[in-house]
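User: two proteins, same treatment. go.

Assistant:
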Amino acid sequence: MHTEYSAPKRFSSTGTNAMRGDGTKMGADRSQSYQDDRGLTGESVGRPAGAGIRIGVVGVGYWGSKQLRVMQSTPGVARAVAIDARLPLLSGMGHLLANGGGYTSLRAALPHIDAVVVATPPASHVEVALEAIRAGKHVLVEKPMATSPAGARQLIDAARAAGVTLMTGHTFEYNGAVTMLRELVESQELGDLYYLDSARLNLGLYQSDVNVVSDLAPHDISIANYVLGSTPTSVRAWGSHHVDPVFEDVAHLELDYADIGVGAHIHVSWLDPRKVRLVTAVGSKKMAVFDDTDAAERIRVHDKAVLPNTDRRSPSRFSYHQGAITSPVVPFEEPLAVQARHFIECMRTGTAPRTDGANGLAVVEVIEAAQLSLAQDRRVLLEEVAGDGPPLPGLVPAPPSAAAPSAAGPSTAAPSAAGPAVTATAVTATVRA
C-alpha cells in the first residue's frame, strides 16, 4: 500500500569532494551549479564549509511557533526563521522582519534557507511544500501531509525527483511513551493483542478548512500504525455536526487491521468539556494505557484480564484476573525536539526519515477512506483510495475561502474571517490542535 520512497541526497558540509546521496562526487563545475541553483549544501555561495542548516518555518501560528522555538535550539541548525504573511501583525513576531529573522513570503525566504517546515492550514500543505521542493529544499510537512492521497503522492514523487528529504510531522512516533507502548505490544507483555482504543477530545479548537477527522485523527492513526507495525485494510467512520454546519465536530473511526487480526477504535471531538489524550491497548494477559496528559505516569500497565472459567462448579463462564497497576519509568524528551533532530540527521546523512513520505501517505489514505465512509455511510476498503485517480465522490470539499490558490499569483477569493487565503508566496498560519 505504501509508495516506495528512495533515500534523499545528503546535506553535505564537508567540501567539494563530499559524496552526494546518489553516490556521485561533488565536482567543481557540477557542484557549483548544484549549490547555486538548488541550495542543498552547506557550501552555498557566501557560506563556509561546515555551516549549519538554515530552516524556514512557514506559518507561525500555535503549532508553527513551537516548531520555530524548537528549531532555533536544535543542534546543527545555524538559523531558524519565521515565514508568515501576517508576521507584522503577530504578537512578539514583528521584530523578526527588522533583524532578518522573518519573511512575509516563502519566495523571498527561499534563497536564504536550506529546509522548510510547513505548518500552514492543511489545504495549502501540498502547494507550499511543492514550491520548497522544486527550489531544492528539504521539507518537513505537518500532519496531515496532504488533504488527499493524490497530493501526498505528488509530494513523494517531487521529493524523489529533486533528491531532497521529505518528512511528515507525526510527532507521536517520536514520543518515548508511545515507543514504550509499541514495545509492550511487540514483546507480547500484554499477551495476544485484542484491540486499541484512542480518545482525543477537547473543547475546540474548531478549524475553518477541515473536519475533526482530518484535524485530530491523524495523530491516533499514526500512533496505531506505529504501535501495531501495520496499516489498516478497511475503515468505518461515523460523525455528527453540532456547532459547525459544514464539518463534523465529533467523529468515531473503526480501523480493521485484518492482516494481524486487530482492530482500533478512535474517538475525536472538538466538543467535549475535558481534554482527553488516551490510547488503551487491551491484550489477553494485561492492558496498558498511554495518557499524554499525565506527565508523571504516561504509561500504566494493568495486570488485568478476562479468562475462560475452568471451574465447572462456578455458574460464570468467565473469571476476572485483578492484579497490580504499575507505571514504568519512561525516558521522556520533548517529541518535537526529537523529531527536529531526526530531520536534521536525515538531511545530513541522506537516510529516509522514520516518518517519511510513505508514512504520511499511509495516514492520508486512512483519512480519505474515513471521509468517504462518512459521506456514504459504509465501510471503505483502503484499496479503494490507494489508486492515483481523481478525488472520490461524496467527500466534503474545503470552503472556497480556505482552498489554496494557484502558485501563479495571489488568490482572487475573498478573505475569510480567519484571515487571508493562502498562496505559495504569501503564507499564513492557522491555530492547530
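Protein 2:
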Amino acid sequence: MEVSQEETVQRTGSAASEPASDHMSQSSLTNGKRKAETELTRDSPPLGPKRIASEAAEGDAADPPLSKNQLKRLRKKEQYEIYKQERKVKRKDRRHAKQERKRVEREAKIAAAEAAGIDPQTVLRPPQFKPILVPVGLIIDCDFEQYMRDPEIVSLSSQIVRSYSVNRKAKYQGHLFISSWGGKMRERFETVYGGVHKRWKGVHIVEGEFREAGVEARHIWESKCGGEIIDSLKANDELPAITYGDNHEPIPEGSEPMDINKSVVYLTADSPYTIERLEPNTSYVIGGLVDRNREKGLCYKKAQECRVRTAKLPIGEYMAMQSRFVLTTNQVVEIMIKWLECGNWGEAFMGVIPKRKGGILKTDTSEADQADENEDQDDDHADEDMLEGDTLVVDEAMNGDESGSEDEEVSQVAVP
C-alpha cells in the first residue's frame, strides 16, 4: 500500500504535536490545583446574613428553606464564635484586676495593723463562727430544661454552684434541695464539673419533682433534725408571714383551696401574695428557669396545678430601681440567707443586688422619687447582662467561692 508524501508529512506533524498538547494539559491541571489550594487556605470572611441565606437556598431543593428565627440563631452563633476569644481575654483581665485589688487591700490592712501594734493575722483571718442549721428548705426546681437553650442550661448550672457556696458559708444555713435532677444539667455536673456535687455537704438532690423534695423536707422537720428556730423565724402575731394584694392585707379566710399544701411556697413574680417573713418548717421553691423571660407565668401556673402556695419577694416595697431587674436563682437564695441573718428585707436586698443596678432603699423619699423617674425613662430597656461562659465555675464548686463573674444570665423568679 503506497502512502503519499503529503499524508506522511501530516502524520509526522500530528505525532509531534501530541506531546506538546499533553504537556499543556498537565500544566493547566497543575495551575488549577494550585489555585484551588490557594482558595482553600485563604481566610474566608465571616458569614453574613445574605451569605447564610444564599447558602441555605443553594442546598438540597428538597430541604425546606430556613425561617427567620433559624437564620437569626445562625447569626447569633456566628457572632458568638467570632468574639469568643475576645470575651476570654476580658474575663482574664477582670480576674487579674480583682486579684490586684485584693492584694492592695490586703497590704493596706497589714500596714494599718502594724501601725496600730496589732498582729496582722488577726485582721486578715476571717471571723470564725459555727454555722447554725435552721428548719427552712430552699428548693431549686430544675424541671424547665425543655424551655431553655444550651447556654442557658450552662448558666443555671453555675447559679446552682453559687447557691451551694452561699449557703455553705452562711452563718444560718437552710436545707438546700435540688429537684428534677437529670437531663443535660446532670450530664454537665458529672462531666464538666467532675461530679463535684457528690461531695457537697448538706445538699439533698432529688430526681423527682419539687413536691417530692417538699415531702423529704417535711420528714426532716418531723424528725427533729431540722435545726434551730432562730429569732428571725419566731412567730410574730402582728406580722403575718404572707399578705395579699398591694395593700398587704391578711389573707382572707377561705380564699385559698382547702387542699392546698401550706408547707411549700413557690416564689413567683406573678403571685398576688407577698412574703413578709420566712416561716419555720417551710420550704420555699425557686424556679430554676433561665429564659430571658420568654415564658411568662410558667412558675405560677405550675404552682397552681400542684396545689401549693405562691408568693413574691417584697422587693418593690423596699427598693427603688433605676432599671428593670430580674433576680438570678443564686441571688434569690442569697437574699433568703441574708434575711435569716438580719431579719430585714431592705438590708438583705442591699447586700445582694449589685450596686451597678442603681437600687436604693425607699427610706429616702427624694432619692426614691428620682429613681422612679429614671426607671420610667429606662422602662423600655431590658437588662442585657448575660453569662457568656464562666471559666471559674469549677473552682467555685471546689473552693466554695461565691464571687462569680460580673455578668449573669437572668432567670424568671420572684421579682414583682
